[in-house]
Each structure stands twice: as C-alpha cells, then as structure tokens.
Amino acid sequence: MVTALGVLGLVLVVLVLLLLLGLLVVVRLVVGRVVLPGRERWTPVLAVDTGSITLPLSDETRSEGTFGLWHGDGDGAGHGGHTVVGSVLEVDEARGTVRRTMLDSVGAQPTEVRWTGHMLRDPSVLGTPWNEVAIPTALGPAPAWQISPPAAAAAGAVGAVVSVAPVAPAASRTWAVHVHGIRTTRVTALRTVPAVTALGWTSLVPSFRGDGEAPSDTPASHLGAREWPDVEAALDHAVAHGAERLVLVGWSMGATITRELLVHSAHRERIAGTVLVAPALDWATTVQTAAARSGLPGPVVRLALSSMATPGLCRLVGLRSAVDVRALSWVRDPTAPPLDHLPPTLVVHSPGDPTVPFRLSEQFAAQHPGVVTLAVSEPTGHGWERNRDAAWFDAQVTGWGAALN
User: Fold this and answer.
1) How far apart are CA 223 and CA 229, in angstroms?
2) What is the pLDDT along the chain (405 residues), one digit of tens a residue?
3) Residue 255 near residue 239 (C-beta atoms within 8 A)
C-alpha cells in the first residue's frame, strides 16, 4: 500500500529530475551559443543603382570601412554572389536606411545579403599566383589555399604592390599560415595575405575540422583544443615544400590554435613570430563577458564552462571531448609554456570589439614588454580592424614583419 509519505517522496524525486533536466537544457543552450554554428542573418537590399547600394540602417551597415556582402548562393567560402561595399554615402535616420558605395559585385544583382568582413571573396582577387592544395589530416584531406608572392615582393620589396598581374612565383623561405576563427571559414583569414605577400612570404590558408569545409566528426567547435592538429598538418605541408621559417597568423579563435601549436607543434623551432588579430586570449573571460552582456546568470555560465571540461558530461552539451576552457589562456600564467619562450608577436585589436575584451590584449602586451607589440585600431567590430582601415592595418603587419626579414 502506497503511503502519503511515499507519494510525496516520489513527487520530490520527479521534481528534482525535472529540475536537473531543465538545468541541463539551459547549460546545453549556453554552450551551444559558444561552440555551435550560428544562424545566418540576412538583410534585404532596398535599392541598387550605378555604384551604390541601399540597405536598412543598423550598427553594422553604418560601420566605417570596406565590407563584403554574400548573396545568391554565396556560402562564405568563396562561392556564389559577392559584393564589396565602401564608404557611407548617405544615412537617412527617418527612413532607417543607409546608402553605401558599391566597389565590386559578382553574381546576380542581390536582393538580400549577409553582411560580413569578407572583403576578399577568394584568392583570385589578390592578383598573385595561388593554387588549391589538399592537406592530409587525421579525418581526411582538408582544402587550403597556397598563395605565392610575385617576384618583386619575394625579392624583398616590402612596399611591393600585390594587385599586379600574376607572375612566376619566387622561392620563399618564410611561410605565413593564416588561421581563421570560430564559426567562419578560411575566407576570413585572406585579409592578412596582402601584407604578408608584400613582405615576400608565401601564404597558406587552411581549413580545419568544424568549419564546414574540412572533414569533421562534429559541427561543434572545441575552441582550438581539437582543431590545432589540422593546422599542424598545414605546417607539415609548408615545411615539406620549403618553409624554413613559419609565422602563425591567428584570427580570433585562431589565436588559441596558435597557442596550442606553440606548445605542441613538431615545428616549434621554426616559428619565427606570430600575428594575432582580435585574438581570443582567454576563453573563460570572453565567454563570461558575453554572457553578462546577454543577461545570463553567472552561476549558469560557470556551470556551462565546468560541463565543457568534464569527461562524459561534455558530450551531453554537444562536445566530442572535454575542453578545459580556463586552460585556453594567454594571460592567466605568463610564465607557463609557451609564454616563457614567446616569439615576437604582433597583436592588432580594436577597443570597440564587442566580442573579445580589448583589455585582454592590453594585459597580454603588458605581461610581455619588448616581445608583444600592440597595434590599436580605430573602434570597430570584432575582427574588422582591416575592414576599418586596410592601409593602416597592412602597414602594421609589414612594419612588424620587416624586422623579422
């Protein structure tokens, strides 16, 4: 016979189980916002005329600089329609519109677009020799772009123009490996290629697991902890094809991959320097800052970070293996490897970055005086430092890189 006390106990157990299930759902949602691909946001095109395009007014569409718009079947990986927009011509606050210069457009006339920092749609717009290569990884061949400097740049002309017609590439003993960030593709990292090409270096722009191009066993990002071996395979390729020195160029999460390579790569002795753009220097701080901005409770965020680091539980939140987010840091222990033997490093970051706290870049530079150079961009969005001012950005990279040559 079931007593009233027994019924009450059963109800309490059910309530506890429902509470735990609900908490797990919330934690999974929090983790998913960090590691899973986001939904693409499309913007309607209001008008297109000779040399200009009109879009709804927003913080993005009124941003100063040069940006890329994907449209048609554009997938952000160098396929489909693409339009490059430049300066703002007119802002109509009453109508909520902005008209911008249209600098270039391929594909059908756009009716809706996806706003991005992808001002370079693929290597063909660089005007320098390039080819697609397949990098052997543990999960299969991953596509990469290999871009050679024109002969003038390879001869050491730092100011060489890289938009000339392709000529026969000259041998380069320095290779830059450009590592893109989270929830994007290698097209993002093309923006550092022009400056590197001007330095006379060969560029390799690889894909890696989870980015939608490379072979992958999960769509979830592991914040660099599982992705770095794919980029290590790209370093293998560079060395096998003549690279004597390597410069790692990390965008956002690419900085975390760069850190892992400085610790684990078989080619550590060849890494002559690193360039970090809008770098994720401390994932725990970055996630907590974003969560606070979104109004998420701190205890839930801390639980989410702990679940990511816990074997078994990490699978329940969408990861294939545990990720100790707190360990993925350039700033928590500046005496730990690889920071105890850090190569010359250039950090390019904007104090207006809404995603990765700029104060982390300031802290990192202060911890490594004489080794880390911090170039401060005009305020702009995350990873838009070159979009904001390409000439300034390229000058920072070529000026820093010339000291390595």
Assistant:
1) 13
2) 457 666 566 655 555 444 544 545 566 666 666 767 777 889 999 999 989 999 999 999 999 999 999 998 655 554 579 999 999 999 999 999 999 999 999 999 999 999 999 999 999 999 999 999 999 999 999 999 999 998 745 544 443 333 333 333 445 899 999 999 998 999 999 999 999 999 999 999 999 999 999 999 888 888 999 999 999 999 999 999 999 999 999 999 999 999 999 999 999 999 999 999 999 999 999 988 887 777 777 777 788 888 888 887 778 777 888 888 888 999 999 999 899 999 999 999 999 999 999 999 999 999 999 999 999 999 999 999 999 999 999 999 999 999 987
3) no
Exposure of 99 by Cβ count < 10 A (0-12 exposed, 13-18 middle, 19+ buried)? buried
* Sequence letter at residue 23: L
Residues 6 or more apart whose Cβ sits within 8 Å of residue 274: 247, 248, 249, 250, 258, 262, 343, 344, 345, 346
Structure tokens at 293: 């901005």
Is the sign of the CA dihedral 83, 86, 90, 94 positive or negative? positive
List, in order, residues 6 or more apart from 389 with CB less than 8 Å away: 65, 377, 378
- Write down the H helix ranges in 119-227: 151-154, 193-198
Q: Other C-beta atoms within 10 Å of 140: how many?
A: 12
- According to DSSP, the β-strands at 67-71 and 43-44 are unpaired
Question: How far apart, in whole angstroms, are the C-alpha atoms of residue 252 and residue 178?
Answer: 11
- Quick one: which of 97, 89, 99, 84 has its CA closest to 53? 99
pTM, two decimals, is 0.88
DSSP codes joined into one string, 307-365 = HHTSTTHHHHTT-SS---GGGSBSSS-TTSTTGGGPPPEEEEE-TT-SSS-HHHHHHHH
> Do residues 142 and 133 lie in contact, with contact meaning Cβ atoms separated by under 8 Å?
no
Residue 162 CB neighbour total at 10 angstroms: 19
> How many residues are recorded in the chain?
405
In the structure encoding, which two tokens stand for residue 151, read together?
């002969």
